[in-house]
Specification:
single chain, about 325 residues, alpha+beta, Zf-an1 domain, Ubiquitin-like (UB roll), five-stranded mixed β-sheet, three-stranded antiparallel β-sheet, elongated, AN1-type domain-containing protein
Length: about 325
């Protein structure tokens, strides 16, 4: 069984048939070559060339020790010099210490000392939540009582934002009450309006409503859709559309926003301040995004697009 060809980068010898593109290598592969070891001279059709002394040898004398090489170690020295000359992957780059402290100025207003170094590691004050140099580490040295904690400031800002959201919700609650009173007159519930009149109103809506023609007629829910002027500014304030009963409210919201040309970034922002939601006038509540239209709504209902009201349960009190 033939042995695999030696790797020229791993051994000091290599088969002449693959060692170099010269006449000697070609001739050796065709007619063979005599071993140049003084006491051998054997004809070998698969000879080896020593990469240190550049002579030809048979299988038994291919190594430097096997033929008492005249230039021992020359190949190894060339390999070592090549390795040293090769640029390493991290050469010229400075490694960052993952646990090194962050350099920053002392939190005292009049101090210019840079902390976070070996000589000035910095001392954290738990009362005002700031970092100081050694000279201002004590509370009385950096006027701790006068400085508000950043954590406290952020909590105060969050409280202000929550109060603003509460005020906005109350404003929409009052708006929803007025909208429901208006709906009692223009879109009365079936118990307040004759069934015949309801059917005529829905039939009239079916003639003018627009929607996806691929939705089967028996699967359609016909709705009056509006955009609340203060928060969901629309190029088309209101319209009459139909949607599939199998759609969820989120999909209907996307379609309605496109139809009324209302900015919709629900898929890009997690902030309730920017999110659009759907208010069901007859039901007096905000619809959840995953509710089925066939369950939450019926033909002839009115829905309104609102922004910034949050996932509140009911906007209108019973």
């Amino acid at each position: 069984m033939a042995s695999p060809d030696p790797d020229p980068d791993q051994t000091s010898y290599i088969k002449m048939a693959t060692a170099a593109v010269d006449s000697r290598a070609t001739d050796a592969a065709l007619v063979g070559s005599n071993c140049q070891y003084a006491y051998c001279n054997q004809l070998d059709f698969l000879p080896f060339r020593c990469q240190s002394c550049n002579k030809t040898f048979c299988l038994d004398h291919r190594t430097e020790d096997g033929h008492a090489c005249a230039n021992p170690g020359a190949w190894a020295r060339r390999q070592r010099e090549a390795d040293l000359a090769r640029i390493s992957a991290g050469e010229g780059k400075r490694m960052r210490d993952p646990v090194a402290p962050q350099r920053k100025p002392c939190a005292d207003d009049a101090c210019k000392t840079v902390i976070g170094t070996v000589l000035q590691p910095g001392v954290h004050c738990g009362n005002c939540n700031r970092d100081y140099c050694l000279a201002h580490r004590l509370r009385e040295d950096h006027d701790c009582a006068r400085k508000a904690s950043p954590v406290s400031a952020s909590r105060a800002a969050a409280a202000v934002a929550a109060e603003g959201a509460k005020s906005a919700l109350e404003r929409f609650r009052l708006w929803g009450q007025a909208k429901k009173q208006q709906a009692k007159v223009s879109l009365a519930s079936p118990s307040q309006k004759p069934k015949v009149a309801q059917m005529l109103a829905v039939n009239s809506l079916k003639k003018t409503a627009k929607g996806d023609a691929k939705v089967a007629p028996d699967k359609r829910v016909y709705l009056f859709v509006e955009a609340e002027a203060a928060t969901a500014k629309a190029k088309i304030p209101k319209g009459e559309f139909f949607y599939s009963q199998d759609w969820v409210v989120g999909k209907m919201l996307d379609a309605a926003a496109r139809s009324l040309q209302v900015q919709n970034i629900n898929n890009q922002s997690n902030s309730e301040e920017h999110k659009l939601r759907v208010f069901h006038v007859e039901g007096g509540r905000l619809l959840e995004f995953n509710e089925k239209l066939g369950t939450a709504l019926q033909s002839g209902n009115t829905v309104v697009l609102l922004r910034g009201v949050g996932p509140a349960p009911d906007l209108i009190e019973a």
